[in-house]
Amino acid sequence: MRGDTDSVKPFIWPVRVYYEDTDSGGVVYYANYLKFMERARTEWLRSLGYEQDQLRASEDLLFAVRSLEIDYRKPARFNDALAVSAALAERGRASLTFAQEVRRDDELLCSARVRIACLSASGLRPRPLPNHMLAEIAE
Fold it and tell me: Which of 24, 69, 132, 133 lies 20 to 30 Å (CA to CA) from residue 49?
């Protein structure tokens, strides 16, 4: 799957900014956007019926961030209600690339492109996604 992410309906996960997510000025600490995005990808996978602990146990499969590019535009603040999206932008045999955004209402705060490697849990080496997952993700 390659192409324009505008044609793919993104998965949206709501996140509330807690005090622990912010710095002394009440602004979300930059690294916490990565945590918000991780949660959205995990919930996307869960929405497809896959739990990561079960994938590790039954498929010897885990996922790890291989690379990312992120653009911070505006700050989120304490108690903001955010919408974190995850849209599959590219699918390789042993990788997934997501286009992700963090929004407050209609305002784009942060966007990223995150490449996820599929790894063997036992050897931490690249491995292809199981065929049944590839078929479901392609839908």
Answer: 69
